[in-house]
Amino acid sequence: MTTSASKARGSLYERACVAYLRAHGYSQARRNMNQTGSSATRYDIFGCEPFAVECKDSVSLSDAAALDEAVRKADRGIPVLFRKRRNCSVDRSFVIMELRDWVRLSAPPTDRERGVVHPDPQCYAHVDDVSCTCEAQ
Q1: pTM for the complete prediction?
Q2: Three-state SS at 45
């Protein structure tokens, strides 16, 4: 496929992603039409903060290479890759991110964050969800 055809296919996928995001609550989502500046402005879709969205509609680039590109472009945002699935609508795209970012976003609050502080800091029973038998209870 020629470079211009690949670029056109990528632009079409970006537009479809933006339309889908807007239809599902990301009203500020928009394509980045100027991806040549600093890394803070090079990812494909704006308006999905804290995410820095990179879109790929390519069969030749590996997921790892595409995610590495998203990481390089993300600057302070959380890098996320939208990967087009062959013969599927945009809502069936893959969303790929690094595990450390997913954990940061999805981890349940710790006891300390919930304001639960065990009276005995040496007791670790609560870590394994077993009943505490220490005398500090």
Answers
A1: 0.72
A2: strand
